[in-house]
Amino acid sequence: MNAFRHLVDRYQSRALVHARLLTRNEADAADAVQEAFVDAFRGLSGFEAGRPFYGWFYVLLRNRCFKQTSRRGTRAESGITVAPLVEPTVSVEQLDLWRAIDRLTPDEAELIVLKHVEGWTYEELSSSLGIPRGTVMSRLYAARQRLLALLSGESS
Amino acid sequence: MNINDCERVRMHLMASADHEAEPPSPRDHEHVSSCAACQRWLTGFESLTTRLHSVPYPRAQADMWPAVEKQIHHGDRAPSLTRQLAPVIVLTLAWRVLQLFVDLPMPALHSLVPLAATAFVAWRAGSRLLAIEMWVPELQKRGI
């Protein structure tokens, strides 16, 4: 059990950020992360050695986020936003960036964070999100365009 | 300047910067050098990439482990395992009832079916525990 705790400790912060971007709600995000860790505990026998743990876990987390948002209605579409989850030590520039990411749609924010912050390849994005590689490229392009527009809007 | 050209070149520049495509062709370079909009886009894209690479994850405000542990221990762990095993147990019992009332062919199957069912139950019950004991230390060793 202590060994599994290590995984929770290691991944809870990033899982919370990802869940929050998908659900747009702190409580839903926390519930989804918690349930995804329980799913991971139960399904660990299905985890293939050699695969990155977080890539496998992310699929569980994503499913939980979708269940959570559909269970609670469409809060993500209601325009309700919550304060960004940031440390006080984060610089102003980084804070602006997280705010801009927060203003993207959940799909766009997910792609930007997984690509740039996690460093996933198009292939990894394609298999985890269940979309073709070409779609990954075009969506990523659109998401970057939107983020650039948001950031240039803020600076002007 | 054709807008489709701009889109095509930008998509290729983006994929190339992501190390997912061949380096930009001389034709792409030629397009960028003659297109002010694509030059602006490229500058913005490069600066965005740099900014995103240096952005740290905010740390979780609270430890989630107590809640996760509670749900693992007191949640529906046992029912979940029972649910998984229930069809096998029912089928084995049905097989036994059938054995008592019907003269079944292939006598070898008479002992094989309960044996297979017992092996399946033991495997399902033990695999989760084994997975935790085996995978988690392995992941820790690999620094994942």
Give a brief outline of the structure.
By secondary structure, chain A is mostly helical.
Can you characterise this structure?
The complex is a heterodimer of chains A (156) and B (144). Chain A is an all-alpha fold. The longest helix of chain A is centred in the last third of the chain and has 23 residues, at 133-155. Chain A is globular, with a radius of gyration of 16 Å. In chain A, helix 1 (2-23) packs across helix 2 (26-43), helix 1 (2-23) packs across helix 5 (106-117) and helix 5 (106-117) packs across helix 7 (133-155). Chain A has helices at residues 2-23, 26-43, 53-71, 92-102, 106-117, 122-129, 133-155. Chain B is mainly alpha-helical. Chain B is 77% helix and 0% strand. Chain B is built from six helices and no strands. In chain B, helix 1 (3-17) runs parallel beside helix 3, helix 2 packs across helix 3 and helix 5 runs antiparallel to helix 6. Chain B starts with a helix and ends with a helix. The model of chain B has no long low-confidence stretch (mean pLDDT 80). The interface between A and B is large, with 52 and 46 residues.
Strands, helices and their partners?
The complex is a heterodimer of chains A (156) and B (144).
Chain A: H1 2-23, H2 26-43, H3 53-71, H4 92-102, H5 106-117, H6 122-129, H7 133-155
Helix pairs in contact in A: 1-2, 1-3, 1-5, 2-3, 4-7, 5-7, 6-7
Chain B: H1 3-17, H2 26-34, H3 36-53, H4 65-74, H5 77-101, H6 108-141
Helix pairs in contact in B: 1-3, 2-3, 5-6
SSE run of chain B: HHHHHH
| Distance linking N and C termini of chain A | 52 Å
Structural class of chain A: mainly alpha
Strand fraction of chain B equals under 5%
| Number of E-type strands of chain A | 0
So how many helices of chain A? Answer: 7
Rg of chain B, Cα atoms, Å: 31 Å
Largest sheet of chain B: none
**Subunit arrangement of the protein:** heterodimer
Mean pLDDT of chain A: 84
The secondary-structure element order of chain A is HHHHHHH
The largest sheet of chain A is:
none
Instruction: Give the overall shape of chain B.
Output: elongated
Rg of chain A, Cα atoms, Å = 16 Å
On the 0 to 100 scale, the average pLDDT of chain B is 80
Low-confidence stretches of chain B: none
Estimated helix fraction of chain B: over 70%
Strand count of chain B:
0
Task: Report the largest inter-chain contact.
Answer: A-B, 52 and 46 residues
What would you call the structural class of chain B?
A: mainly alpha
